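Field reference: sequence -> structure
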Amino acid sequence: MLPLPARGRISAEVMALRQQLNHRPTDEAELQAYSDRAVTLYGWLFAPANSLVKPGGKILIVPDGILHYLPFEVLERPETNRFLLEDFTIAYAPSVSTYGHLRNQRRSGAGQRSLLAFADPVFAKAAAQPVEQDLVRGIYERGGVQFVRLPNTRKEVESIASLYKPTDRKVYFGREATKTALQHEHLAGYRVLHLATHAIVDERVPARSGVVLSGSGAEDGILRVPDVFNLDLDADLVVLSACQTGLGKLVKGEGMVGLTRSF
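Structure field:
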């Protein structure tokens, strides 16, 4: 157990670092400013425990408060001039009790296929698209969400799928990559679920957050947090290959509540 600086100092540095990460540096001075802040946070949050961690070892982070917004991977180690990610394997857990529960689970994986993936869904309005579906999409668009096609998500999943035998994978592309198809799949029969698409994050009302897939019938195609809770998943890994999926509403005593928590 090691002491940390005051909560206010940590919060200010974390939020400043996040702002720097959201913008590509335009000159050497901005790059140095980021580096200085990344080194400072490393010195506060990790350096005191340096001697307790083996080089190349694994680090499990259970963050609290503002630290939910900090990607520890980008902290810089002045003694090696490397990012933390380059020297350690880093994982996160919402709580120690959750981590303990996951570790104590014993699964055989018998009968499971390796990969189920959805990518490059269709967002364009179809000629016969129901008015309800168009209305829901319109509400999100007025809030600043842009449903533009992501053709590289198809290339991403094609590349990943090539690592598996055809009998050990199943992929959905384009108009077939629907929320209905996902919900009707035998999800417990796959070890990896990979979703490459847009995501909607609502930090005020986490239940509105979701992963955007193709619509079908009267279904708008948005897999929201309540939908995720109802999925019968038994996967070792779920990949949310979309922007800001690690965000959500920060609830005292609960941590970050959003898409990742629901999965």
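Note: The mean pLDDT is 85.
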